[in-house]
Write a structure and sequence with these properties.
The protein is an alpha/beta fold. The chain contains 17 helices and 14 strands. The chain is globular, with a radius of gyration of 22 Å. It starts with 14 loop residues before the first strand and ends with a helix.
């Protein structure tokens, strides 16, 4: 794949850059900062050096007086380096140096009692591709099948790369770091969680499915989030006028990852899988769009205890938008009922339906947009009017 220009904007000062493996963190930084000095902790020699002698970083900075930017790849492999980074940042008498600390997991950093240099180093995230980044190369059907991880899309055999992606995490993150005692139980959990993708998360049901305790499942979900492989979405409760559910929804971070983990058999309904894939893709795109923007916006969902649900609520100082996602090729009145119920409670909001068809429609006053047309409009900081235009 040709080089894709990313929307991510690097801060002027030191920052963390977290993101799942394969999102292109190193590629992005090498392209944007060719003059930086890189410390790759996935390299065995570098790992041994900095784990056993973290003070070596101070010597590296001192020994390269003309270098103003240092990148430490996979910082979670050697969390003790953060103490040295902290000291170097605090030493005002030293020259101005920018540290960029990348990672695919924050778990080990937190377990080590590190406060992520709060207040001194910004926390940024890199996501799979946005449709708007790919432009004319974005293909909705391919994205639902393979996902949008740069590592997968750039591979000569993307299907095989996708199949091995989760195994890589199991081998190099979960097992190697000793995050769980029984790797087999965690592998079953990953498969069981595929049935919770784009659904309310019920840890008791997942525990029964993978034959482990509920507390163990709760811990496994936290590991998934720490490894940036999945995320939970909270319910929108501001000035609620109805009784709402309390459970969050769960999503794998990429549609391709969901597809690779979801078992397929005679009892699996294709429509269920395609609907969950599309909803998960939209969730991933909205999260990345918010992360790359400068405006304060948050993502929620809305669901009453009677089962009326709106898939996504975008809320911020300049935005209040309800989004429903349907994979069907047609849009009908029944598809916008939940949106109309939400607008009854929040008349100041705007609403739209994203569906799998080709035409822009207006159904009972609700704009219905083809998903393939909507996603490429998610340029950072775009307004509601711009993305619905």
């Amino acid at each position: 794949m040709d080089t894709v220009k990313r929307f991510f904007k690097a801060p002027q000062g030191s920052f963390f850059l977290f993101g799942p493996r394969g999102t292109g963190k190193s590629t992005l930084l090498k392209a944007n900062f060719p003059d930086a000095l890189f410390v790759d902790l996935l390299d065995p020699d570098s790992y041994r050096t900095y784990v056993s002698h973290p003070e070596q970083l101070r010597a590296l900075v001192s020994g390269n007086p003309k270098v103003s930017r240092f990148v430490i790849d996979e910082i979670q492999k050697a969390p003790s380096l953060l103490d040295v980074v902290h000291q170097l940042i605090e030493e005002k008498s030293r020259r101005s140096v920018q540290f960029i600390l990348t990672g695919s997991s924050s778990r080990k950093l937190r377990r080590a009692g590190v406060n992520l240099l709060a207040g001194r180093v910004l926390l940024k995230t890199l996501h799979p591709f946005l449709a708007a980044e790919l432009g004319s190369r974005f293909n909705l059907e391919q994205s639902l099948r393979l996902g949008l991880l740069p590592l997968v899309l750039a591979a000569k055999e993307p299907e095989e790369t996708l199949k091995s992606y989760v195994s890589l995490y199991l081998r190099e993150e979960v097992q190697a770091e000793g995050l769980v005692r029984n790797i087999g139980s965690f592998a079953r959990f990953l498969e069981a969680m595929s049935f919770s993708h784009a659904s309310l998360l019920n840890t008791s049901e997942v525990a029964r499915e993978c034959q482990v305790g509920r507390k163990a499942v709760e811990g496994f979900v936290e590991i998934l989030e720490d490894l940036l492989l999945g995320f939970r979405l909270k319910v929108f409760t501001r000035k609620a006028k109805r009784h709402l559910v309390q459970h969050p929804k769960f999503y794998y971070m990429d549609a391709g990852i969901f597809r690779s983990l979801r078992p397929k058999g005679p009892l699996d309904v294709p429509e269920e899988m395609s609907g969950a894939s599309l909803e998960g893709l939209v969730a991933q795109q909205l999260r990345a769009w918010i992360a790359y923007g400068q405006k304060e916006r948050e993502l929620f969902f809305w669901r009453t205890k009677s089962g009326v649900e709106v898939d996504f609520i975008l809320y911020g100082q300049d935005m209040f938008l309800a989004i429903e996602v349907k994979s069907s090729r047609r849009a009908a009145s029944k598809d916008v009922r939940a949106l109309k119920a939400f607008l009854e409670d929040y008349p100041s909001a705007r609403a739209c339906l994203l569906y799998g068809g080709r035409d822009r429609l207006l159904v009972e006053g609700i704009p219905c947009l083809p998903c393939a047309e909507f996603l490429p409009r998610l340029v950072p900081d775009a307004t509601v009017s711009e993305i619905l235009a």
